[in-house]
Recover the amino acids of this structure.
């Protein structure tokens, strides 16, 4: 490293989505609207669950937490991307770049663990219904949510501990719309092959472990549903299909970004947009449109305001 222990680069230049200059304003309007829908959709879900007594159950408690996490996951990179559409030079300070890395991995890993917790909740509800109220009490749910945050924090700190000591002394162009570890290691003044392997292993431990736990949980659930009565099976399958859809939407981009990187620039950017914008956008729609109780809660909420 030639004795260079401190970064000499004070800011990075983001290349953005690589779109033509004449499309920047259009993209600004599109992503601004999408970000507004993400915020409003997830906030509405949280308000419905908090205010409607019919939704005061473990499943909806966890869903409210998922909406909260999705809202912040999108907020890590989307506001910066939106404002950069109107700038010729898209720069981010070194500290801002490290903050994006920290919060992206903190919130992202926390959401993965939270999805496992939600799968466990459905497993208990469907496979052990007589013990559900005992196992999934408020104290247990709160503890599981806190565990997801702790795991996300530990994972993020471990990633940041690897990145911060790196020497950044030359190139400062990052070919994306936000800072992420695989992108930042490319501009470090050292051979990043071994470091990339270490990062892939660290991320892979979280992603693959959570994904395997989810597969096991939903396999047990689907086997149990198959043996159940048609009425109960239909309701359970509807709920689980929404969960499985969210899992696929969230995990597939993460796998191809961190575990099995394809190293195709345009595809990496697409997956990053999908992971940070599209997934948080689709989650509210999936859970409200495919959930009868959520739709009824929305009707009660609408009638309440119309009557008042």
């Amino acid at each position: 490293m030639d004795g260079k222990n401190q970064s000499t680069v004070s800011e990075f230049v983001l290349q953005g989505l690589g779109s033509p200059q004449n499309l920047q304003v259009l993209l600004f309007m599109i992503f601004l609207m999408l970000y507004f829908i993400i915020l409003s959709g997830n906030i509405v879900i949280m308000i419905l669950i908090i205010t409607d007594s019919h939704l005061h159950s473990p499943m909806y408690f966890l869903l409210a937490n998922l909406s909260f996490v999705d809202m912040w996951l999108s907020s890590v990179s989307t506001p910066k991307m939106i404002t950069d559409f109107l700038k010729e030079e898209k720069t981010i300070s070194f500290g801002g770049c490290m903050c994006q890395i920290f919060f992206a991995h903190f919130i992202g890993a926390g959401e993965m663990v939270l999805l496992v917790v939600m799968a466990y909740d459905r497993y208990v509800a469907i496979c052990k219904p007589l013990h559900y109220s005992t196992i999934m009490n408020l104290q247990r749910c709160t503890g599981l949510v806190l565990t997801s945050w702790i795991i996300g924090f530990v994972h993020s700190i471990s990633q940041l501990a690897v990145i911060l000591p790196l020497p950044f002394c030359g190139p400062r162009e990052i070919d994306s719309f936000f800072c992420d570890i695989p992108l930042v290691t490319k501009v470090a003044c050292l051979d990043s092959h071994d470091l990339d392997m270490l990062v892939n292993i660290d991320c892979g431990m979280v992603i693959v472990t959570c994904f395997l736990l989810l597969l096991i949980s939903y396999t047990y659930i689907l086997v149990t549903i198959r043996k159940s009565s048609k009425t109960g099976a239909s309701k359970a399958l509807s709920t689980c299909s929404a969960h499985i859809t969210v899992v696929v939407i969230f995990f597939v981009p993460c796998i191809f970004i961190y575990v099995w990187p394809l190293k195709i620039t345009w595809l990496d950017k697409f997956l990053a947009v999908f992971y940070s914008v599209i997934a948080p956008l689709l989650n509210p729609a999936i859970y409200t449109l495919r959930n009868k109780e959520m739709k009824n809660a929305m009707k009660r909420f609408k009638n309440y305001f119309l009557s008042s």
